[in-house]
Design goal:
The chain is mainly α. The longest helix is centred in the last third of the chain and has 34 residues, at 209-242. It is built from 13 helices and no strands.
Length: 335
C-alpha cells in the first residue's frame, strides 16, 4: 500500500467525520446516516493501515477518531438496577459454571495438599519443632490458646471487615495474575494450603483437631470455595494465553479477562458473606454442630446458585462477558 496515496484518497472522509463529531447542534437525519457510514469506512481504513502500512501518528489519529465516532453512534448507557440484577442472576453464576472444570479440580487437589501437609506435620515431631518452640506450640494449641482466641480477638464487625478485605484481595490477585501463565496463582494457593495444613497438623498433634475444624468449617467452606473459584478462573485465563482455541488470542483474552473482572466483583460479595460468618458465627457461643451447620448450609446454597442458576444461564448462552453493546468495537479484518 502506498500510504501517501491512501491518505490523499481518504483524508476528506476523515475530515468530514471529524467535523460531524464536532457539531454543537443536533445532527439531521441525513447527517446522522452519513456519520454512521463514515464511521464504518474509517474503521475499515484503520484496519487496513494497521495490517499493511502501520504508521504510529496516523494510526493514533484514526484510532481516536473511530473511538469518538463509536461513542456518538452507540451513545452512552447508564448502569441500572436491571444490570445489577442480571449480573447476580445470570452473568456471575454463568461465569462460575463455565469455569467449573477448572476450579473444582483446583479445590480437590488443594484440599488434598492441605490434608497431606497436616498429616506430615502431625506425625513428625521434628517438623513441629522446626515450626516453633515447644512452649510456643503449646500456646497455640492449648484450650483458650491462640488458635481458639484468634476469631474473637477483635470486635466482630471490624474482624469481619478485615477478613473480607484480605480474602477479597487474595481472590483478586488470583484472577489478575492468572494472565501470567497462572504461575503466581499456584504460589498463592500453596501459601493458603500451607497455612491451613499447619493448623490441621498442630491441632491434630495436640489431640484437638475437632476443635480446629469446628472453628474453621463454619466460614472456611464458603471462603475457600471462593478462593478456589478465583484460582481456577485465573488458571483458565493463563491457559487462554497458551491456547485461545478458535478465537484470535487477543479476542479470547479480552473476553475471558472481562469475565474474570466481573467474577472479582461477584466473589467479593461471596467473601463478604463468609466474612460475616467468620466474624459473628465462628466465635459465637452457639453449639459446634450449629456453627458447622450454618457453614454447610451456606456452601450448599452457593453450589446450588452456581449449578442451578449458573447452569441455566450458561445453557441460554450467557458467558459472563459484558453485554455486546458495551464491548469495544471489533475492527474489520483486512483481506
Amino acid at each position: 500500500m502506498d500510504l501517501d496515496v491512501f491518505v490523499s484518497a481518504h483524508r476528506a472522509e476523515w475530515d468530514r467525520l471529524d467535523a460531524l463529531l464536532r457539531r454543537q447542534r443536533r445532527l439531521t437525519g441525513a447527517e446522522a446516516d452519513e456519520l454512521v457510514v463514515l464511521y464504518q469506512r474509517t474503521a475499515t481504513h484503520l484496519s487496513l493501515i494497521q495490517s499493511s502500512a502501520p504508521d504510529p501518528q496516523l494510526t493514533g489519529r484514526l484510532t481516536q477518531l473511530v473511538a469518538r465516532a463509536r461513542s456518538a453512534v452507540t451513545g452512552t448507557r447508564r448502569a441500572s438496577w436491571r444490570d445489577a440484577t442480571h449480573f447476580l442472576t445470570a452473568s456471575f453464576p454463568a461465569a462460575m459454571y463455565r469455569t467449573r472444570r477448572w476450579w473444582v479440580p483446583t479445590a480437590l487437589l488443594s484440599t488434598l495438599v492441605a490434608v497431606l501437609i497436616g498429616w506430615w506435620i502431625s506425625t513428625h515431631p521434628e517438623v513441629q519443632s522446626a515450626i516453633a518452640a515447644p512452649a510456643e506450640l503449646r500456646e497455640l494449641t492449648r484450650p483458650g490458646g491462640q488458635y481458639e482466641t484468634y476469631y474473637s480477638s477483635n470486635p466482630a464487625a471490624s474482624f469481619a471487615a478485615q477478613v473480607w478485605t484480605n480474602n477479597a484481595q487474595a481472590a483478586a490477585l488470583c484472577l489478575v495474575l492468572g494472565a501470567f501463565l497462572g504461575l503466581p496463582v499456584i504460589w498463592i494457593l500453596l501459601q493458603n494450603m500451607l497455612n491451613l495444613g499447619v493448623g490441621i497438623g498442630l491441632m491434630s498433634s495436640a489431640g484437638r483437631l475437632d476443635i480446629f475444624l469446628g472453628l474453621v468449617l463454619p466460614h472456611g467452606l464458603l471462603e475457600l470455595t471462593a478462593v478456589f473459584v478465583a484460582a481456577g478462573t485465573g488458571l483458565r485465563l493463563g491457559w487462554t494465553l497458551i491456547d485461545p482455541g478458535p478465537r484470535p488470542r487477543r479476542t479470547a483474552l479480552a473476553e475471558e479477562g472481562r469475565a474474570a473482572l466481573g467474577m472479582a466483583i461477584g466473589l467479593a460479595l461471596v467473601l463478604f458473606v463468609s466474612g460475616v460468618i467468620e466474624g459473628f458465627v465462628t466465635p459465637s457461643g452457639l453449639p459446634t454442630w450449629t456453627r458447622v451447620g450454618i457453614g454447610i448450609t451456606a456452601e450448599l446454597l452457593f453450589l446450588l446458585y452456581v449449578y442451578v442458576l449458573g447452569g441455566r444461564a450458561a445453557r441460554a448462552g450467557e458467558t459472563g462477558d459484558v453485554a455486546a453493546p458495551d464491548r469495544s468495537a471489533a475492527l474489520p479484518t483486512a483481506a
